[in-house]
Each structure stands twice: as structure tokens, then as C-alpha cells.
Amino acid sequence: MTSLELVVNQKAVTGIVEPRMTLVDFLRERLDLTGSHVGCEHGVCGACTVLVSEGGAPATAMRGCLMLAVQAEGLSVTTVEGMSPPDGSLTALQRAFQRHHALQCGFCTPGFLATAEVLLRDNPDPTPDEVREGISGNLCRCTGYLPIVEAILEAARSLRG
Fold first, then answer.
1. Which of 65, 62, 55, 44 is nearest to 6 (CA)?
2. Residue 53 near residue 62 (C-beta atoms within 8 A)
3. Angle between helices 92-99 and 146-160 (to 10 degrees)
4. What residue spans define the domains of the chain?
5. Is the pTM higher than 0.85?
6. 26 contacts: CB under 8 Å, gap ≥ 6
7. What is the C-alpha to C-alpha distance for residues 17 and 42, in angstroms, rounded to an integer?
8. Domain spanning 92-160 has what CATH number?
9. What three-state secondary structure class fits 155?
10. CATH tag for 2-82 (out of 3.40.1170.60, 3.40.50.10470, 3.90.79.10, 3.10.20.30)
11. Residue 5 vs residues 23, 64, 69, 75, 96: alpha-carbon distances, Å
């Protein structure tokens, strides 16, 4: 067993984990943050994607099933539960997903939101093709992707003002 200290959704967290426990399992099983889903467990589907950052560096979208919890030692992790403002309101991206019904069953949604957040931070004015490329590592079995792309493009317009 290994002790672990990190920040999750802006709160200091400690835990004792087996060295082989994945980050997504730690979040779900130890912290009861079940928004990040376990899908393929091979990093293919993207359902487990969370935002990870070190110090003040910009966050990176990471597959929680491919990262061990012990690798998050000293890092900051943001799950879908931590993406909303403290008052519980929805972000522009979440509102756009809701408006475009880009979340039919919802299983893939947390991973798409994390991926899209980084995409829009790095490219605030993406083309539809750039959005498709940016989310190409996330799988959805319900929407056919068009509502997701439209939601991300709307959020980009909204964020740009």
C-alpha cells in the first residue's frame, strides 16, 4: 500500500492505495466521484477522461484508466463534478451540451466535456473539422457525434463573446 496526496476538484485529498489502482478507480471507489466512467479500461473510449495539472500549468486531458492513482501524487485533478462553478450553475460548454442534446445516455459525456474544455482553451475558434479531430479519441454510441460537435462549436462562440 502507498500513501497518496493530491488535489481533486480544488480540495486536498489523501488516501492509501495499492500501487496498481488506477486513477479512475481511486476517484470512483475512494472519493465517490462517479462522474468519470470506466468503459474499455484500455484508454480507447475516453469515458474516464479527467483534467490533470501540475502546479499552475494548464490542465491536460488524461485517461483515468491509464493513469495510476500513485502517478497523480502532488497533482491537481478535475473531474466532471468539479467543472461547474461552486454555485452549481452550468458552464457554457455544459449548457451547450444540454441544448444540443449531446448527452443522450450520458456515459461518454464526462470524457467529452473534459476533452472539449482543453480543446476550447487551446483553440477558442475551432472549425468543425478541428472539433472532430479534437474529440476523435472519445467514443459515443448514441449521438452520432453531430450534436456533440454542434455543442462544442456553440460553446466556442459563447466563450468568445
1. 55
2. no
3. 140
4. 2-82, 92-160
5. yes
6. 4, 15, 17, 69, 72
7. 21
8. 1.10.150.120
9. helix
10. 3.10.20.30
11. 12, 16, 10, 8, 34
- Which grid coordinates belong to 9? 476538484
Instruction: Name the 3-class secondary structure at 78.
Output: strand
Please list the pLDDT of the chain residue by residue as tens digits (161 residues): 999 999 999 999 999 999 999 999 999 999 999 999 999 999 999 999 999 999 989 999 999 999 999 999 999 999 999 999 999 999 999 999 999 999 889 999 999 999 999 999 999 999 999 999 999 999 999 988 999 999 999 999 999 98
Continuous H helices in the chain: 23-25, 92-99, 109-122, 128-134, 146-160
The letter for the amino acid at 27 is L
